[in-house]
C-alpha cells in the first residue's frame, strides 16, 4: 500500500529538464505575478486559471523583462503640430507618447500584484506617471519610447505598459474620467502552462465561453430550450396571436399646426409600442421659438436621451427668457404623457424648490398657464397645512417650497410617495459642496433634477463642478479628480507667462469640459428678446465726489490703522466695506456697525476730522446729488416709475429718507419683508400709477432675482457688487416679457474711488473667483499690490477707466467699431499713418475745425520714407495695450459702449448754426448732446450747471 512505502528524498542529479523544459535559471528573476481581474476576493485557483488562459489562447511566449530597443513602439502618436516638418526637423515635442499602464510600489514579495492603473506620458526627456485620478506619482528621465508589455521604473514605482493612447485624448483629459473609453484588459502569457491542471483549464475555458455568450453558463435543460408560451387559466383556451397590433394614439395631434412633438426613445421594452409625446396646445400657442427649443431640450435630458450618463439638466438662460414657462410646459407634459404606450405618466409628484420671494410667483405662473382645475399645487409656506396632503394624498401633484423650509421637512418627504423630479430655481444657491439644501434634495433619491439659473458659472470652476454633480452625480468624478484634470490646467493656462504647453492643455481641457457638459446645459442670452421687447439703454454714470466726501475718503485711506491692516486678508475685507459705504454716503459710517466691523471702524474714524463727522448728511455724497436731480427730471417730465436697487439695507434707509423728504410715493422690499407680502407688493407697484407709487426700493440680495417689475421702465443701481451676476440679475427686473416702454438702466459709481475699481474688475474678465465674492474670505484673492491699487484715490479730472481702454474717441459719444474689429483696425491705423507724404501733412492743418471735437485727429508721418521696424513696433504696442497681462482682451466689453465726456461735448461747436431749430431745407438739427444722449431726463442732468456726472458709458440694445 502507498502509505507503507518508505520516504525517498528527491534527487536532482541528472535532471536537466522538467517535463521536457529546461529548469529555471537562478540568475534570473522569477516571473512577475500578473494582474488579477476578479472582484477582489481571494481564490486559490486564480494563478492556474490565468495560466490556463495562456494555453487556451495559445500564447506560450513569455514577456521579456525590459527591452525598449528591441520592440517597435505600439500606436505611437506623434505631435500633430510638427507633422508637417521633415524627419530631420522634428522637435522634441514630436517624441511625445502616452500610455495606459499598471503600477505598483517596489516590493520583495514573491507573489507580486499591481496596485492600480495609471497614465504614463513620455515627453521632453522625462516619463511622468499619474494615477487614473490625475494625481502625480513621480517622474524619471527617459528619452526612448516604450512598447506594449515593457516593464520599467518611474518615480520609484514599477510599471508595465498596457496600450498607447492618443495625444488628443490625453490633452482633453479623457483617460482620467471613468466614463471615457479605455482599452480592454488583456490576459498576459504565463510560463509553465503544462503544470496547470486539467480542472483549471476546463474552468477557464468555460469562463471564456461565457464571456462570448452569456447564455452558455445556463444549464441546458428542456425548460431552458423551450420557447416562451403565454399561460392561460383554462388550458382548453387557445388564443391566436393578434398580428394586426393596435396603433397607439397620442394625447394631442402631432400633425396639428404649430404642434411641438418630443423626441422618440431609441429603445422600447419588448411587447410595447412608442407613442408620440406632444406638448399641450394650451401651452404651445404661447411658446416662442427659443422656448420651444428649451422645452424639447429639457425633455431629452430628463428622459436620458441627450447622450449623457444622467437624467439632469441646467437651464441657464438669461433673465426674462421664460425659464418658468418652459419648466411648466415640461412638468405638464411629463405628468400627463409617457412615450411608451400603455405606461403611466413619467412624473406623478414634482418638487419645486426656490427662494421664498418666488414661492407666490411660481404659484401665480402655474395658475396663469394651467388654471386651477388642471393641477393641484401644494405651497409649503403655511404652518397649518399638513405635509401628508402632498406626500400621501392624490390631490396635489406639485409642491412649491423654499430652500430653508426644505431642510426641515426632508425626512417627512422621504416617508411619502416618491418625488419623480426636482426643479431647483435660482440653482446657483447650491454652489457649495456642503450646501444643506443640496444635501436635502439629494436625500430624496430623485434622479431627474433640473437647475434653473440666469447666472451661469463664469469663473469659479469649483462651483461649476458642484452644480454639475448635483444634476448628474459622478459625471465629472470627485472634486479632487476634477480639480487635477480640469480646474488646475485651465486656471494655469490663464495665468500670465503660461507656457505654450500649458496653454495647449488648458484649451484642450476647456473644450473637453464644454463638450461633456454641453449635452445637458442650455444657455441663451437676452439678445433673443430684442425682437419681442422694446429697446433697453444702459448708462454707467461716473459721479464726482463732493469736497467733503473726498476729504473723508482721503482720511480713511491715510489712517495708520488702515495701512497697518493692509496685510490681513480678513481685515482687508472690512476695509473694503468701509470704503464702499464712504462711496455711497459718508453718513453710513456713523450708523451702527455690522458684526465684524467693530475691530477697525472706530479706529479709522479717529483719523476723520471731527468737523466733518459732525456735518455729515446724505447730501455729502456725489451719487446722492446725481440721484436727486435724476429722480426730479423723471418725475416732472415723464409718467414713468423707477426701481431703486442697493446691495445694503443701510443704504436703502438713507435713500428712503431722501425720497421721503421729496414727497415721492414709494414701496420697499428687503430682507425684513415677510415672504407672504412680497408678491403683493410687486403686484401693487405694477398696477399703481406714478402718483400712487413712483419708486420701488429693492434690496438686491432679498429680491434681486425672479421678480417681475415691469410696471417700471427705469432702474437705478445705486451701488455695485463684486459679482457681476448679482448686478445683472437686479438690472433684469424691468426688461422682461410684458414690458411696453423703452427701458433705461442707470449704474452709479463714484469716480476715482473703490466703486470704479469694482466696475473695472467686473468687465475685465480677470477671474472674479479670486476676489471678494459672497461668503468667501474675499481679500485673500488679492495680492498686496492689488489691494494698494484698490485703496488708491484718483482725484484727476480724466476718467481712469476710459484711459485704461486706450480709446481715442475723445469722449465724443460717437459709435465705436465692434470689439472684434478693434485690434484689426490698430494695424491699419498705424500703417495708414506712414503712407502720407509731406504734402498731405500740410493739408492736416487746413482741416475744418468743426470736425475736431467729433472726430480725433490722425497723427501723420512727417516724412515720405517709412521705417517699417518702427511701424511694426507701434502696431505691437497698441495691440498689447488692448490686452491684459494674461494676453486676454482687456475690458473689451466696454468697447460696445459709446463714451461720453459731457464737458467736452458741451464745448463742442456744432456744424449747424441753428442746433435747436429747423434748417433751411426743413430738416431738424440736433445739438451734439442730443445726438450723444437720447434720454431726455439724463441729458437735462448732464447739461445742468455744476453737474457731478463726469463721464458716461452708454449702450443701447436694438
TrEMBL record:
Polar residues bias (residue ranges): 189-201
Biased composition (Low complexity): 80-96
Classification via InterPro entries: Helicase_ATP-bd, Helicase_C-like, P-loop_NTPase, SNF2-like_sf, SNF2/RAD54-like_C, SNF2_N, SNF2_RAD54_helicase_repair
Keyword field: ATP-binding, Hydrolase, Nucleotide-binding
Keyword Ligase: no
One cellular component (GO) term of this entry: nucleus
Region (Disordered): 1-47, 62-96, 188-225, 815-854, 900-924
Source domain of life: Eukaryota
Domain Helicase ATP-binding, chain residue ranges per copy: 304-474
Domain Helicase C-terminal: 630-791
GO MF entry, a single one: DNA translocase activity
Xref: Pfam families: Helicase_C, SNF2-rel_dom
Biological processes, Gene Ontology terms: double-strand break repair via homologous recombination; reciprocal meiotic recombination
Entry protein name: DNA repair and recombination protein RAD26
Amino acid at each position: 500500500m502507498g502509505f507503507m512505502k518508505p520516504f525517498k528524498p528527491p534527487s536532482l542529479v541528472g535532471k536537466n529538464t522538467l517535463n521536457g523544459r529546461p529548469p529555471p535559471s537562478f540568475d534570473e528573476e522569477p516571473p512577475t505575478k500578473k494582474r488579477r481581474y476578479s472582484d477582489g476576493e481571494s481564490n486559490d485557483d486564480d494563478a492556474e486559471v490565468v495560466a490556463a488562459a495562456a494555453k487556451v489562447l495559445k500564447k506560450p511566449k513569455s514577456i521579456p523583462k525590459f527591452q525598449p530597443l528591441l520592440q517597435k513602439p505600439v500606436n505611437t502618436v506623434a505631435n500633430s503640430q510638427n507633422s508637417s516638418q521633415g524627419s530631420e526637423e522634428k522637435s522634441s515635442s514630436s517624441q511625445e507618447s502616452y500610455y495606459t499602464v499598471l503600477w505598483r510600489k517596489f516590493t520583495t514579495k514573491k507573489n507580486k500584484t499591481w496596485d492600480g492603473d495609471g497614465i504614463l506620458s513620455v515627453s521632453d526627456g522625462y516619463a511622468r506617471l499619474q494615477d487614473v485620478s490625475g494625481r502625480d506619482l513621480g517622474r524619471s528621465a527617459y528619452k526612448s519610447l516604450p512598447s506594449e508589455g515593457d516593464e520599467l521604473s518611474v518615480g520609484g514605482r514599477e510599471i508595465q505598459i498596457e496600450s498607447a493612447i492618443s495625444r488628443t485624448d490625453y490633452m482633453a483629459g479623457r483617460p482620467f474620467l471613468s466614463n471615457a473609453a479605455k482599452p480592454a484588459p488583456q490576459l498576459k502569457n504565463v510560463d509553465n502552462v503544462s503544470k496547470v491542471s486539467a480542472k483549471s483549464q476546463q474552468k477557464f475555458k468555460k469562463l471564456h465561453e461565457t464571456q462570448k455568450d452569456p447564455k452558455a453558463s445556463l444549464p441546458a435543460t428542456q425548460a431552458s430550450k423551450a420557447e416562451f408560451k403565454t399561460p392561460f387559466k383554462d388550458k382548453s383556451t387557445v388564443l391566436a396571436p393578434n398580428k394586426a397590433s393596435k396603433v397607439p394614439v397620442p394625447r394631442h395631434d402631432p400633425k396639428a399646426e404649430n404642434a411641438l412633438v418630443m423626441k422618440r426613445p431609441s429603445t422600447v421594452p419588448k411587447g410595447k409600442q412608442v407613442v408620440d409625446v406632444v406638448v399641450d396646445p394650451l401651452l404651445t400657442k404661447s411658446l416662442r421659438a427659443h422656448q420651444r427649443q428649451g422645452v424639447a431640450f429639457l425633455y431629452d435630458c430628463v428622459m436620458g436621451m441627450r447622450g449623457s450618463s444622467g437624467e439632469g439638466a441646467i437651464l441657464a438662460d438669461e433673465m426674462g427668457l421664460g425659464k418658468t414657462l418652459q419648466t411648466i410646459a415640461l412638468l405638464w407634459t411629463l405628468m400627463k404623457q409617457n412615450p411608451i404606450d400603455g405606461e403611466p405618466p413619467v412624473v406623478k409628484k414634482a418638487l419645486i424648490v426656490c427662494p421664498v420671494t418666488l414661492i407666490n410667483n411660481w404659484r401665480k405662473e402655474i395658475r396663469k398657464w394651467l388654471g386651477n382645475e388642471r393641477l393641484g399645487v401644494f405651497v409649503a409656506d403655511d404652518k397649518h397645512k399638513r405635509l401628508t396632503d402632498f406626500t400621501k394624498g392624490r390631490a396635489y401633484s406639485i409642491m412649491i417650497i423654499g430652500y430653508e423650509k426644505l431642510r426641515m421637512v426632508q425626512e417627512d418627504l422621504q416617508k411619502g410617495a416618491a418625488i419623480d423630479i426636482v426643479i431647483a430655481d435660482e440653482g446657483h444657491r447650491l454652489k457649495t459642496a456642503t450646501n444643506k439644501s443640496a444635501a436635502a434634495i439629494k436625500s430624496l433619491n430623485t434622479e431627474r433634477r433640473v437647475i434653473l439659473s440666469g447666472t451661469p458659472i463664469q469663473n469659479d470652476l469649483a462651483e461649476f463642478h458642484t452644480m454639475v454633480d448635483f444634476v448628474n452625480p459622478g459625471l465629472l468624478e470627485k472634486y479632487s479628480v476634477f480639480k487635477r484634470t480640469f480646474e488646475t490646467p485651465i486656471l494655469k493656462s490663464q495665468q500670465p507667462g503660461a507656457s505654450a504647453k500649458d496653454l495647449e492643455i488648458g484649451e484642450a481641457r476647456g473644450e473637453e469640459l464644454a463638450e461633456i457638459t454641453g449635452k445637458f446645459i442650455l444657455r441663451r442670452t437676452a439678445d433673443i428678446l430684442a425682437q419681442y421687447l422694446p429697446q433697453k439703454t444702459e448708462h454707467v454714470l461716473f459721479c464726482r465726489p463732493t469736497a467733503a466726501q473726498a476729504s473723508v475718503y482721503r482720511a480713511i485711506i491715510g489712517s495708520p490703522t488702515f495701512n497697518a491692516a493692509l496685510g490681513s486678508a480678513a481685515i482687508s475685507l472690512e476695509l473694503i466695506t468701509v470704503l464702499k459705504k464712504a462711496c455711497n454716503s459718508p453718513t453710513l459710517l456713523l450708523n451702527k456697525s455690522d458684526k465684524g466691523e467693530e475691530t477697525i471702524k472706530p479706529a479709522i474714524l479717529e483719523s476723520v476730522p471731527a468737523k466733518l463727522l459732525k456735518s455729515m448728511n446724505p447730501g455729502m455724497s456725489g451719487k446722492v446729488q446725481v440721484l436727486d436731480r435724476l429722480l426730479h427730471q423723471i418725475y416732472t417730465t415723464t409718467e414713468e416709475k423707477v426701481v431703486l436697487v442697493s446691495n445694503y439695507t443701510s443704504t436703502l434707509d438713507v435713500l428712503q429718507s431722501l425720497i421721503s423728504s421729496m414727497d415721492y410715493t414709494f414701496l420697499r422690499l428687503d430682507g425684513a419683508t415677510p415672504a407672504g407680502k412680497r408678491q403683493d407688493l410687486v403686484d401693487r407697484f405694477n398696477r399703481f400709477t406714478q402718483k400712487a407709487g413712483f419708486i420701488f426700493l429693492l434690496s438686491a440680495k432679498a429680491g434681486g432675482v425672479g421678480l417681475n417689475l415691469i410696471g417700471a421702465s427705469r432702474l437705478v443701481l445705486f451701488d455695485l457688487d463684486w459679482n457681476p451676476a448679482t448686478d445683472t440679475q437686479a438690472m433684469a427686473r424691468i426688461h422682461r416679457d410684458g414690458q411696453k416702454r423703452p427701458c433705461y438702466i442707470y449704474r452709479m459709481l463714484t469716480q476715482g474711488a473703490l466703486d470704479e475699481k469694482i466696475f473695472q474688475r467686473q468687465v475685465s474678465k480677470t477671474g472674479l473667483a479670486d476676489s471678494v465674492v459672497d461668503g468667501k474670505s474675499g481679500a485673500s484673492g488679492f495680492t498686496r499690490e492689488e489691494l494698494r491699487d484698490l485703496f488708491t484715490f484718483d482725484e484727476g479730472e480724466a476718467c481712469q477707466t476710459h484711459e485704461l481702454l486706450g480709446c481715442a474717441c475723445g469722449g465724443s459719444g460717437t459709435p465705436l467699431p465692434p470689439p472684434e474689429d478693434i485690434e484689426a483696425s490698430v494695424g491699419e491705423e498705424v500703417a495708414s499713418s506712414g503712407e502720407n507724404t509731406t504734402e498731405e501733412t500740410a493739408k492736416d492743418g487746413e482741416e475744418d475745425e468743426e470736425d475736431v471735437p467729433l472726430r480725433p485727429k490722425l497723427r501723420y508721418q512727417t516724412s515720405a520714407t517709412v521705417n517699417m521696424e518702427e511701424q511694426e513696433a507701434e502696431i505691437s504696442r497698441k495691440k498689447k495695450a488692448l490686452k491684459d497681462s494674461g494676453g486676454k482682451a482687456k475690458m473689451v466689453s466696454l468697447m460696445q459702449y459709446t463714451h461720453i465726456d459731457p464737458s467736452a461735448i458741451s464745448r463742442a461747436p456744432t456744424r449747424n448754426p441753428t442746433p435747436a431749430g429747423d434748417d433751411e431745407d426743413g430738416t431738424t438739427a440736433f445739438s451734439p448732446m442730443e445726438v450723444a444722449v437720447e434720454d431726455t431726463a439724463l441729458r437735462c442732468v448732464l447739461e445742468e450747471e455744476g453737474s457731478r456726472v463726469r463721464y458716461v458709458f452708454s449702450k443701447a440694445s436694438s
